[in-house]
Amino acid sequence: MRYLPFCLLALLSPLAFSQLPDNDIFLVELSWSKSEDGRSLPKLGPARNITKQPGYENQAHFLPDGQILYTASRDGKQTDIFRFDPKSGNTTQVTATPESEFSPTLMMDGRHFSVVRVEADQTQRLWQFPLDGGEPRLILPEVTSVGYHTWLSPTQLALFIVGEPHRLVWVDVAKSQPKTLLNDVGRCFTLAPDKKSLYAVHKPEGKTWQILQLGLSDQKREVLAETVEGAEDYVWTPDGALLMARESRLYLLHPKRDKQWRQIADLADQGLKGITRLALDHKGRYLTLVSATKL
């Protein structure tokens, strides 16, 4: 079963850049084997720090060729998008603008990527850049307060809209009229294999957080699982399992077979803690994690 591994991670509200956390992105190679009960379980290789810079590095996104787009602040004033090549170890700066770009996400044409851009007046809107360089273009002029996004088709998106409450909305680029799908939503949501529904984290105040399957047309809700306590970032593996992290520990759950999360790794001995922001390449071979601790 194939899941689209977008974990959409942008700015939740306009922040002073002194408030952005000091963290790094780590790359881990996974090797998979079958357990005694038939479940696929990963074995993690060493965690490799792929950023190694002071300041904010976050929001990794795998491209089909295995390269990784991510957000970073190099001057402490604003953020740009960078690209890391795991094969060569080279890092390339992709955007260099006075504005701040967050949450790089490959668009379905394969030639552009979209970002949440914090404009000069602190308006947060969705823009696109050519992957190979060029001028940006505003995608949804009338839709503001965008925090996160994922593409559902070449013209349709799911957006996290910052507000009270935070909302998950559906929007067509041609119509620019968002339709609310869920309130009190978390920052990580993914397109389901049937492309007719979304998976999203529901975070109602004072209640247990849950991963829901949410119909795009009928908004029918089905609870897949409770999240790992206090965690909201997840990725799907190619065989339909969920990965989540808390502190230094990584957990796995097959929603259709498991009732409880299973701890599969603890990266504390490698110096990682406070892990957030997971991303997995489409083959399930490489995982990125964001950690507040430097190696």
Automatic annotation (TrEMBL):
Entry keywords, A to Z: Signal
Secretion signal, residue range per the UniProt entry: 1-18
Gene3D superfamilies from the UniProt entry: TolB, C-terminal domain
UniProt key word Signal: yes
UniProt keyword annotation of Ubl conjugation present: no
Family according to the record: Belongs to the TolB family.
The protein's name: PD40 domain-containing protein
Organism in which the protein naturally occurs: Sulfidibacter corallicola
Taxonomic lineage from the root: Bacteria, Pseudomonadati, Acidobacteriota, Holophagae, Acanthopleuribacterales
